[in-house]
Design a protein that fits this description.
By secondary structure, the protein is of the alpha+beta class. About 55% of the residues lie in helices and about 10% in strands. The protein folds into two domains: about 10-120, Glutaredoxin, CATH 3.40.30; about 140-495, Glycosyltransferase, CATH 1.50.10. It contains 19 helices and eleven strands. A four-stranded mixed sheet has the order 2-1-3-4, with helices on both faces. A three-stranded antiparallel sheet has the order 5-8-9. The longest helix has 28 residues, at about 470-495. The N and C termini lie far apart (about 80 Å). This is DUF255 domain-containing protein.
């Protein structure tokens, strides 16, 4: 039977509709690359009884997590699909991941009963849940100020954490229990940077083996080019067939750094093949930008600012390393198109450009676009890119900076439904702010940027939770700070 569920979008009107009807909201978190989402949509949501329940007793809201990652960060249940029941105020009543038709009916029946009981009480639990979510992600302002004076991670401690998670047999790093192997460009980037000048260091051997094994296994598509999202086995086999622009751009950046710094020429073939693959199979002629993901023959054509910015940086670096003007021209073209289509006066960069959909503005879009602008400036010397970065930096300070000195994932001034009222402090994006400050200090010789970057680095230090991805990103900040101080000492010596 035809799909008859009336899906609404994430917006204040959806919550107001639920309140007016006194009905719970079924929020479905999905992604175009998600295999189990596709199965659920062709089975569970096609079930006649499920459709009747949803039509008469729920307000249905579908959220693409690539378009609205800030919503997913606050509501997902560990993976996708996530099916969450909300009140009209945005409070979570319960949630699950994949559900069959029979499981969904039981889930909806229980949810409807819970909603009826909840309506008899006040919404004080919403505030308790909101406070718990905020505490989980970054703590109170007072706690942040206390954290700022605690000691930061050392490079030795970072390397010990990474060594413990390293797979000696097949390369790569384990983040959680189990055999699943995800490509983790942040870790490889740090190890490549740490090993500069020490080609025989253990850290360099770890990343070399990992880069080799990914190409030798099934993560890399040797027929078409590009990297799949992850492998189910630790020996880099049983790859899931979806590909993401984000992970491909991140891995390309690492392979390019390996070629540029260490001269590992054997990676050139995979780099060229993957670049050409992305420039054809991910390229959208209509927008002139890259789509977000590809699963089987379907390309998600929505151009995301943060991921296209990563790709622009890759193309600019590839143009420099290989002396190939075509790559440079395309990278600069992507940056200019993003500026034309996604820049909002006083707000900065929107997350994507799709005229029919309201796009949020997220911290990740500001940081990734500014980092790409600095790459463009360093390669071309064109001051327009530096001026854009300076303008966006000022707007980021106004819209995202929290009282404790760190940065929220969404603008602090917007009116927001549900848990979007809760400011979250994303560790990785805040570390990108650190890297931005340090690079701007290098390029402009404005010492204030260095001070701001160092202060934020100390604030973030205790928030890593020994997560290998977090500590590797933190290590990049430490390395940038160390190089800046070394350069300044050299300048001081030369001047005297």
């Amino acid at each position: 039977m035809p799909h008859t569920i009336k899906w609404l979008s994430w917006c204040a009107d959806t919550f107001e509709r639920a309140g007016g009807l006194n009905q719970p909201i079924l929020m479905y978190l999905t992604a175009p690359w998600c295999h189990w989402c596709s199965i659920m949509e062709t089975t569970t949501f096609q079930d006649d009884q499920v459709q009747q329940w949803l039509k008469h007793k729920f307000v249905c809201m579908r959220v693409n997590v690539d378009q609205y990652p800030h919503v997913a960060d606050r509501y997902h249940f560990g993976g996708y699909p996530s099916v969450i029941i909300l009140t009209a105020e945005g409070e979570i009543l319960q949630g699950e991941n994949y559900l069959s038709g029979r499981e969904m009916i039981s889930f909806l029946e229980e949810s409807f009963r819970k909603h009826g009981k909840h309506a008899c009480h006040n919404s004080s639990r919403f505030h308790a849940q909101a406070n718990a979510l905020q505490d989980k992600h970054q703590g109170r302002d007072e706690a942040d100020r206390t954290l700022a004076i605690q000691p930061s991670l050392s490079l030795r401690k970072i390397n010990q954490i990474l060594d413990r998670s390293y797979d000696q047999e097949f390369g790569g790093f384990f983040i959680d229990d189990g055999e699943i192997k995800f490509p983790l460009p942040e870790i490889y980037d740090y190890l490549l940077s740490f090993g500069m000048g020490y080609s025989n260091a253990q850290e360099v051997m770890m990343v070399r083996k990992t880069l080799d094994q990914m190409l030798a296994g099934e993560l890399y598509d040797r027929e078409n080019g590009g990297f799949f999202r992850f492998c189910e086995r630790k020996d880099w086999t049983h790859a899931h067939q979806e590909k993401l622009l984000e992970s491909n751009a991140g891995l390309l950046s690492c392979y390019l750094k390996a070629i540029d710094i260490y001269g590992w020429e054997s990676y050139k073939g995979a780099v060229f093949q993957t670049l050409n693959y992305l420039m054809t199979d991910f390229w959208d002629e209509e927008t002139g930008l890259f789509g977000g993901s590809r699963r089987e023959n379907h390309l998600d054509r929505i151009p995301y600012t943060n991921w296209n910015s990563l790709m622009a940086s890759v193309l600019i670096r590839a143009g420099r390393i290989f002396n190939y003007p075509r790559y440079l021209k395309l990278g600069l073209q992507v940056l200019d198109l993003l500026w034309t289509r996604c820049y909002r006066f006083g707000q900065g960069m929107s997350h994507f450009c799709a005229p029919e959909t309201s796009a949020p503005a997220l911290l990740t879009d500001q940081t990734q676009y500014m980092l790409a602008l600095l790459d463009a400036y360093q390669y071309t010397g064109e001051k327009t890119y530096l001026k854009r970065a300076g303008l966006l930096m000022g707007q980021m300070e106004e819209n995202y900076r929290m009282p404790a000195g760190n940065y929220g994932d969404i603008p602090i001034i917007d009116s927001k439904p549900g848990y979007l009222k809760i400011p979250l402090i994303p560790f990785m994006e805040n570390m990108d702010v650190v890297l931005l400050f340090m690079r701007l200090a290098h390029l402009t010789e404005i010492d204030l940027y260095k001070v701001r970057g160092e202060n934020l680095l100390h604030i973030l230090g205790p928030m890593h939770h020994d997560n290998p991805i977090f500590v590797a990103k933190y290590g990049l900040g430490l390395l940038e700070l160390g190089r800046f101080n070394a350069d300044q000492n050299l300048i001081d010596v030369c001047e005297h």
